[in-house]
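As noted in the main text, all predictions were made from sequence alone. Below is one such record, for TetR family transcriptional regulator.
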Amino acid sequence: MSDGAGGGRARPKRADARRNEAVLLDAAAAVFVRSGVEAPVRDIAAEAGVGMGTIYRHFPTRADLIVAVYRHQVEACAEAGLDLLARSATPYAALERWINLFVDFLVTKHGLAAVLQSDAAGSDALHAYFLERLVPACAQLLEAAAAAGEIRSDLEAYELMRGVGNLCVGAGHDPRYDARRLVGLLVAGLRRPH
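Prediction:
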């Protein structure tokens, strides 16, 4: 795996180092969802139960942390699809739960845009990664719910994800705007009438 900076091969991380990094990324994602990507690092450290130095050791800059959270959330959303299908009562219930994860991810993603303004190539690469990993996960959930007769079958995963994304834009700027409620109405509208 290339580290991108020096072109060399990065050494694989030990299992405990990967777990520690995942804890930091989960904590940062939770804080970003609540308070935005400009939240103080001390809040992330408190959420993770570590010192601020630990965060800076793993992520020297805020941009490094935000990009890592973005990638971590993409992977969590991508991997959640099959797990939710296996653990949910119905494919539609799995789709609803996945969309809620996706909304949390989008809150962080919108903050990422400001961080990457000066890096168009990096932003484009992350967007391509996002589509490559998440469109198939959403499509799988839509197909399962449509095959079960729970939702209409004429919706593309990209369309739904784009609609959810548009409903989430600006949610952090207006306390009266409840993006999650509107997304819930959108997803409810997919149901087939009984």
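The chain is about 70% helix and 0% strand. The radius of gyration is 18 Å. These features were considered when defining construct boundaries for the mutagenesis experiments described in Section 2.9.
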